[in-house]
């Protein structure tokens, strides 16, 4: 790893350089690879963001919520520290340790008194580096944390570049990044000073020991207790001995640090997820009948706020069930529970009359496909995006899924058709096109339960209608949960559940709910008013 100061000097010059520099240096800026995650068997659990943050010495710093980037940089830093120390420094430490033993034995053969005198002086060269080492170690943790923070800012800025630019806030972000780097730089200077001071005190203490041995040895020679030849041999051995002890001293903090880092890594590996382990059920056929029974749920971050209160609902196979309600009423939370990302505090979720908990996690995620409002596409071709998760899908299957999602026409009109690059996070296709590719990606899995969480919000009414008609025709036995704010979508549903402040307040079909003149009727009225208002505005605009 390059010295940190080099990294910081590089980073100060240009906002783009540091990321590269940090990545190259293999320091906290590195991203953990998926394979490493798998090797460490890290579970991306629902409450993924709650971890205990530890210093590299393994002591808990505080129980707080940290971001993914923090976890990523912490794990990469710790794994780097551990692998470096174990591969190189531990073997050197063992070699020097054997050397110290051998040299001290030889010294004892030459003069027992001088050897005892040397041994008495050893604590001096032990204690001073121990204290300076602790201080240095504390500082290096701070430097790593500060680097991780700077890296967070860079990552966030680059991944939201469009938003940054549209608010003309490039300078603001550069300033934010600069401030983080300045903090790191300041810490680096202190770290460098501490390093110099500890090296200096180490050398001075061992020099003091050598001088005292020479003085005491001289007196022993004068008193004829030791021959001058033995003293010379002893001093030669002692020089080797102290330099070996110095090397041991300098490597010791690294090994201690590696022990702390390894404790942390194994703590992650052995971490017990806050949700109960999954079951073993993976039946060959699944009907897709879902029941929520008296579900009460609060997010771990806000344990006092129940977002779902005694919710009971049923999703039947072959039916489209629409979940409607004001923003924040808990619709997406229901999906998260169905995906087993969280565990409800009370109540039970049943899938085909068996507790959701008894199913294998992977099986559940194969059988349940969720398309969200802002699906994530990968920077690969449209074809690769559609067959994501089903790598062996044939071209015919890809096209069939795209047709179902009403995406085939626009994909065929793209410059390279299905081989057109979707761009980073799907940046080279429109919002509606992105949603249709995501729906095709979900459909190719042939899920038994399909959840469309505002997944057609960017489609025009005509395209939306075509998607629903195709779904209705093709997914006859599939359970569809449709979350939408648009009346045009809800009207396609067989059953409608109205959620308000975490409670099911009404359910039935469109006509039944309209007749009730309750919340749903009000929702429909508002939608119609909005449509009329939009139409009127369009007319006025055209007149002008
Ligand atoms: N990860 C979270 N941690 C804590 N609270 C959360 C979390 N996610 C959502 N909430 C809160 O839970 C409540 C329900 O959110 P949810 O996303 O389920 O609502 P929604 O009905 O899907 O809203 P929308 O229609 O706007 O998507 C909201 O008050 C929200 O602030």
If you had to describe this structure to a student in words, what would you say it looks like?
The protein is α/β, with parallel strands linked by helices. It has two domains: 4-269, ABC transporter transmembrane region fold (Up-down Bundle), CATH 1.20.1560.10; 290-376 and 438-543, Rossmann fold, CATH 3.40.50.300. Helix content is 58%, strand content 13%. It has 18 helices and twelve strands. It has helices at residues 4-13, 17-25, 34-39, 68-110, 112-159, 161-166, 170-222, 228-269, 331-338, 361-367, 382-386, 395-404, 408-412, 431-443, 461-474, 487-490, 510-516, 519-543, and strands at residues 50-54, 60-65, 290-298, 306-315, 320-324, 346-351, 354-355, 368-371, 449-453, 479-483, 495-500, 503-508. The strands form three sheets. The chain has a six-stranded mixed β-sheet, sandwiched between helices. A four-stranded antiparallel β-sheet has the order 4-3-6-7, with helices on one face. α15 (461-474) links the parallel β9 and β10. α4 runs antiparallel to α5. The radius of gyration is 33 Å and the shape is elongated. The termini are far apart. Mean pLDDT is 78; it is low at 1-66 and 538-544. It binds adenosine-5'-triphosphate. Its main location: membrane. The chain crosses the membrane at residues 100-128.
